[in-house]
Amino acid sequence: MADAQALRTAEVSPLQVASLSRPRRRVRRLGLQGSELTWAIAFVIPYAAVFLAFVAYPVVYGLWLGRDPALYAELMSEPIYQRTVVNTALYIVIGVNLKMFGALLLSGFFMRRGWWVKGLLLIYVLPWAVPALPSFMSIHWMLNGQWGLFNNVLWNVFGVDGPGWLETSRWLALGSVIASHIWKWMPFWTVILLAGRMAIPQELYEAAEMDGATGLKRFAHVTFPLLANLYLICTLLSTLFTLGDFNSVYFVSGGGPALSTHVLATLGIRNAFEIARPDLGVAVVMSALPLMIPVVILLMRKLHTTEVQL
Amino acid sequence: VSAEPMDGGPVRRRPNYRLRRNLAEAAALAFGLVLVVWTLTPIYNMVAVSLEPHGDVFTSDIWPAKPSLESFWIVVTEGHWYLEYFWGQFGNSLYVGGATVFLTLAIGSLASFAIGRMRIRYGWLVSSTALLTYVIPASFLAIPFYRIMNIYGLSNNLWAVIAAEVTFATPYAIFIFQQYGVSIPIELDEAARIDGASPTQVYFRIYLPLMAPALVAVGTYALLLAWNEYLYQFLLLSSKQSMTVPVALAQFLNSDEAPWNYMMATAIVYALPPVAIYYAFRRRMTAGLTMGGVKG
Predict the structure, then answer these.
(1) Are A124 and B35 inside 8 Å of each other by CB?
(2) How far is the alpha carbon of B107 from chain A, nearest alpha carbon, in Å?
(3) Cβ atoms within 10 A of the Cβ of A110, count?
(4) Residues 6 or more apart from A185 whose CB is under 8 A from it?
(5) Which of B286, B270, B266 is nearest to A110 (CA)?
(6) Shortest CA distance to A143 belongs to which of B260, B189, B102?
(7) Does residue A18 have a pLDDT over 70?
(8) Which residues in chain B are closer than 8 Å to A59, comparing Cβ atoms?
(9) Residue B78: which pLDDT band, with cuts at 50, 70 and 90?
(10) Nearest Cβ partner of B286 from A37, A195, A237?
């Protein structure tokens, strides 16, 4: 019986070959048998173990830590938390959109021909290759009001006495953090969108040119419609990544001046480890769920229906 | 005669066209220059500060008056009390990075093999949970993760950090391997099975060799992830001997008189390996990141 089934699986008719190369979901095959099944299960077990021990358990534990509604009432009444929510919203709305729109434009720029554009691309991706911490520490010192490079240049070249970018004003500090985040992550998204642009067949552009579409028209009628889906997926992913970005804020402004530039990711850690209130820290993180869940659902749908790879 | 106007048109327009093209090129160059300044300023600052001789950090110079490699020498010889375990910590970083790469590749490729090639039932469930994990920000899980590591008895242990990095790198690995695996004909596996190869033989002899480009891409990704990560390493490692470089580097910040030239020299030494690896595997990695491109 088992032999007969094995034989049937082995006999692959041309029709089956065609169906095998189609997406997984549509393929109906016989279930795995005996030792094959054991092997397959054994191969999945390491990942399943990692997932259960280091994702599922922490998630459940986190939900349990943040289960008390009173925590959220306490949180809402904190001025620091209220400021943090505003900062996070600004960080995401400004940071993500500037970064993604910049990446879209720059990916067009890097489509230009010429040796120096290729060389420039190599330099431009450097922030992505350099580890986050050294860069952000460097930016932190660079923006120092008294001794930082930025104000030194302002003083030596323009004779202007620059402000303390991170020490004096909440908005200057938040702006600096957002700029640092863009500096670090825009190259990554530019490379992704550049690859997306390169995947657009040249014939489409040639055909569009025949029809008289050049410049902005070409972008509006050829490039953008084909890139829109990728752009949306990248924006959604980037929203989630930015929401969880700890390093930019922690190392550039450190949440200062006077705790005015915290975002949810850093405030959660501060509550849990600096003032030793892990439940309050988890509550901060949990309060991001109303934003996260719709983004995740939209993203999962998009990723399932289109074959975009990140 | 009738062809003349058609030929004449472009000829008359050419100077104008060339001028416009040159102007566009000049504008692009100017923009490129701005981009270079924007990109390199923080890195220039890192280098400039690291070249300051001791004590001269507090100046209004744009470039050190007397550049010296003293700070690098101090870092390499562990000549400052904050740097006394530098090479040990660098070794810890390498250890974490290496273990993360190996485990991510092993766990990710085994799971993808079972899902994509052996087509285990409920395989879609595994891919979906992986995808879901990929979009959860790591920093949001840090608080319960830290407590759970204490429960597991892994506090102040490099393996706690490795577990964290692997947890957040594996979903991406599965995602990439799944997509890349589609391009390898399943008939190869079928043929090997008919010849009597066991699943492990198919995995080692057929699957892994053919997946080499994806393995390189994901390996580079995992290494950069471990090298970039700070929060988990900071929370999970507490003693100077078990720290990794980023944690030690951040400790500088808390001291009263942070020796910025040593910090920046340490930062540069720390940044060199990933930059070298990134540029060595850049093409593979970009290809890995964008395999599939825009099929939507």
Answers:
(1) yes
(2) 6
(3) 20
(4) A99, A128, A238, A241, A242
(5) B286
(6) B260
(7) no
(8) 141, 144
(9) confident
(10) A195
Q: Which residues contact B119 (CB under 8 A, 6 or more apart)?
A: A24, A27, A29, A32
Are residues A130 and B224 in contact, defined by beta-carbon separation less than 8 angstroms?
no
- Highest mean pLDDT among A79-83, A153-157, B178-182 belongs to A79-83
Closest CA to A59 of B289, B143, B66: B143
**A65 to chain B, closest Cα gap in Å:** 8
Whole-angstrom Cα distance, residue A251 to residue A138? 9
Is B291–A309 a contact, with Cβ atoms under 8 angstroms apart?
yes
- Decide: A306 and B295 in contact? Cβ < 8 Å: yes
B186 near B72, Cβ under 8 Å? no
Residue B289's pLDDT is: 61
Distance CA A159, CA A164 (A): 16
Residue A31 binned pLDDT confidence (cut-offs 50, 70, 90): low
Which pLDDT value is given to residue A256?
79
pLDDT value of residue A48: 94
How high is the pLDDT of residue B112? 93
Q: Which residues contact A189 (CB under 8 A, 6 or more apart)?
A: A99, A100, A103, A234, A238
More confident: A29 or B221: B221
Nearest to B46 among A134, A268, A306 (CB): A134
Report CB contact under 8 Å: B140, A303: no
Residue pairs spanning A and B at CB distance below 8 A: 312
Q: Least CB-CB distance to A20: which of B46, B147, B186? A: B186
Residue of B nearest to A65 (CA): B144
pLDDT in tens, A151-189: 888 888 888 888 888 888 899 999 999 999 999 999 999
Rounded CA-CA distance A185/A102 in Å is: 11
B223/chain A closest Cα distance in angstroms: 11
Q: Report the pLDDT value the prediction gives residue B294, as an integer from 0 to 100.
A: 34
Partners of residue B294 on adjacent β-strands: A308
Q: Contact A144/A151 with Cβ under 8 angstroms?
A: yes
Q: Name the closest residue on chain A to residue B247, using Cα atoms.
A: A133
Tokens 């005015």 found at: A260
Residue B83: predicted pLDDT:
82
- Which residues in chain B are closer than 8 Å to A91, comparing Cβ atoms? none
Nearest to B292 among A20, A155, A309 (CB): A309
Q: Convert the pLDDT of each residue in A104-123 to its tens digit.
A: 999 999 988 888 998 999 99
The secondary structure of chain A in percent helix, strand, coil, rounded to multiples of 5, reads 75, 0, 25
Give pLDDT, residue B3: 42
Tokens of B139: 């920093």
Q: Which of A137, A156, A250 sits opposite B60 (nearest CB)?
A: A156
Kindly determine whether residue A44 and residue B110, on different chains, have CB atoms separated by under 8 Å: yes
Q: Minimal Cα distance from A251: which residue of B?
A: B250
pLDDT digits (tens, 9 = 90+) for A292-303: 999 999 988 887
Residue to mutate among B38, B44, B45, with most A CBs inside 10 A, is B45
Cβ A132 vs Cβ B230: under 8 Å: yes
Taking the C-alpha atoms of residue A227 and residue A193, their distance in angstroms, rounded to an integer, is 8
- Provide mean pLDDT across the span B56-66: 72
User: Which 8-state DSSP code applies to residue A32?
Assistant: P
Q: For A90-102, how does the pLDDT look when each residue is reduced to its tens digit (9 = 90+)?
A: 999 999 999 999 9
